[in-house]
Amino acid sequence: MQGRKLFVLVAAGLMVIGCGRERSNVTGWEFNNPKNGGFQKVPYFDQETGPGLILVEGGTFTMGRSEQDVTYEWNNIPRRVTVSSFYMDQFEVTNFNWLEYLYWIKRTYEEFPMIYHNALPDTNCWRNPLAFNEPYVEYYLRHPAYQNYPVVGVSWNQANEFCKWRSDRVNEFILIREGVLTMNPDQAGEPFTTDAYLANQYHPQPQDEKEHQLINLSPMQGWSGKRKDLGTRIVRMEDGILLPKYRLPTEAEWEFAYYGLVGAMTNPADPGVIENRRTYPWTGHWVRADDAEFQGDIRANFVRGRGDYMGVAGALNDAADVTAPVDSYWPNDYGLYHMAGNVSEWVMDVYRPLSHEDFDEFRPFRGNVFKTKVLGNDGNIDEKTNQVLYDVYGMREYLHEYERKRFQRVSAGDHMPKPSDSTDQYKGMTMNVKSRNDINYYNAPPEQVYLVKNKKKDSIEMLLLWELNRVVNQAVDAANNQWYMEASEIVQTNIFDGLFDGVDPRFDIQDNLGNVYPLEIISELRTGMSQFVVNTPGKLKWRQVTAEENINRLNYQNSDYRDYNDGDFESSIYYGGTTASSLERHDDRKNKINEGIRDESLVMYQNDHELYDLTGNQINQDAQAAWPTTLLSDKSRVYKGGSWRDRAFWIVGSNRRFLDEDQNMSTIGFRCAMDRLGSPKGLGRYR
After folding, report:
1. What pLDDT is stored for residue 444 in this prediction?
2. Predicted pLDDT of residue 17
3. Helices 520-530 & 459-480, crossing angle to 10 degrees?
4. Is-contact 326 148, C-beta < 8 A?
5. What is the 3-state secondary structure (H, E, C) of 343-400?
6. pLDDT score of 83
């Protein structure tokens, strides 16, 4: 399809002149005829395979534990499920892939450096208190020697943003290849996004718009019966040209692709029988190759034993000290490389230890948060954003926590904000942040942790924090009035383009010789506050669906189902009751949640501090449950497979671990997936 113009393809099925048009088998009216309304039916062959992807033909399999549970977690009991066909990256996403992403981000969002910073992998993930890993910190991401190695230090959130970026770049390339769009390398301020294009909100070259659009067979634009009078239109989803979005695979998809069970059906007399339930991506219960040519070779990159990461000099058994190139070793029967070893991989799912009990047999997944596009008062899709949008509420809580971590211990007592300090917020989460950074929590001398000296707070730092809180509180007030655009503009103008850019002389530190010194906490705060970017220029606005708009809907009512049946109020010990007193206690907890006094997310999984309720009142001074009792939350995401630092037990496909979605490790990477539309067998085959 390289170089073929889309106009030629579509025009073949849409020509106004010509004969023998196809008719509707429902109404008898002709398709593609502007004389009777111009309803179009375009020729469609099959879904194009996106760059880097391999079709994984779906089916049923036994998902779950395939090895003994040596950890006794019982978090993956076997169950039979069905997975639809889908596409998956043949290789893990590499450092070079990520550098391409960073280059595009930096070039496109030059005026918004916080977006680029959010996309940077955490190269410090390589550091270890008792190991010399600084060479990987300095060189692993950017040196060409590692360009074909898997990217690490990437959080679940960052991996998802990469998938979104990749979706837009691939669809933009398809439209350019087919002649719909012209090459537009300079997209600063208005980058191409698929959603914005389909909403007819991407017009980089309005003077050439008609030339680069498709013929619209609708006669509603002053058509006189001549083809030259027909209007034009953009490509629509109905044309079958654009690809579905790249995304992370679900846990079920990843595990299904891992085993490559198409290679375990070896009986030609009964091809539907899986003769061997695999433990690894290959047949057998051993990790060395057993064919004559490679007999004895290690099949994956993992730790063989204590201290053995790559073998003996002269006979390295996996030839990789840390990670290995993504195309090394042997692929599984789907053609996927490194499903076992090298790096563990993020999947979409929210982690729950009882996922084997609460699941759907068809395409199982935990983590749905249903969203919809923001509409204007006229019912049409709202204009895409042309600025960076921030979570100003999260930003305020971050500032509170930052202040306490930096200054609390220096006071030799509990540090609570005074009007002269950075904030006058006393209630809610602010109180709980105080408790989680209590003076007794750390045991190192203050001088080793904080910049402040002589047990005095730095006046310039305190002034900066006071100013930041003043601006953020102003933005929160705007957000409370539903002025979200103005709230983000307040943050952008006054903080990132103001206080952080050196426009305020109060924060210039100069000595008697005129040397200017940077204020260290500005770089720290810029990094911390950048994580609260929730939308970037060129993208449509989305919101979570509400129960009110789902009235009379049978399949779902709310938006957030990450904790459905496992973490929500209905699944907790506070739901229901057998005695009058227990019912009263449970109703009291439910009412406080509904009134916004208690935190609903802490009802079942106590993963945060709750000494104080959301109004600032102390709940129970002696309550042990006020302190975290679990690491689980709705932000806990599953990662699958073993890594270069794991023993063979963890490279088994059924094993599962979890990490918060905003954290990262030097052992976790990822690969992308894509939905398969239509026939599950591919190439237009239906049986």
Report:
1. 40
2. 41
3. 20
4. yes
5. CEEEEEEECCCCCCCCCCCECCCCCCECEEECECCCCCECCCCCCCEECHHHHHHHHH
6. 96
pLDDT for 456 equals 61
Asked if residue 674 lies in contact with residue 53, where contact means CB atoms within 8 angstroms, the answer is yes
SS3 of 292-337: CCCCCCECCECCCECCECCEECCEECCCCCCCCCCCCCCCCCCCCC
Any residues with CB less than 8 A from the CB of 673 and at least 6 apart, and which? 86, 87, 88, 89, 246, 247, 248, 249, 250, 253
254-274, pLDDT tens digit by residue?
999 999 988 877 777 777 777
The number of CA neighbours under 13 Å toward the Cβ of 357 is 9
Per-residue model confidence as pLDDT tens digits over 348-405 = 999 999 888 888 999 999 999 999 999 989 999 999 988 999 999 989 888 888 887 7
Q: Are 415 and 431 in contact (CB under 8 A)?
A: no
User: Judging by beta carbons within 10 Å of its beta carbon (0-12, 13-18, 19+), is residue 228 exposed, middle or buried?
Assistant: exposed
- Please identify every stretch of the chain with a pLDDT value under 50, giving residue numbers as ranges: 1-18, 209-210, 409-426, 437-453
Tokens of 370: 């249903």
Q: Tokens for 635, please give them.
A: 């932000």
SS3 23: strand
How far apart CA 350 and CA 638 sit, in angstroms, is 6
For residue 135, the tally of other CB atoms under 10 A from its CB is: 10
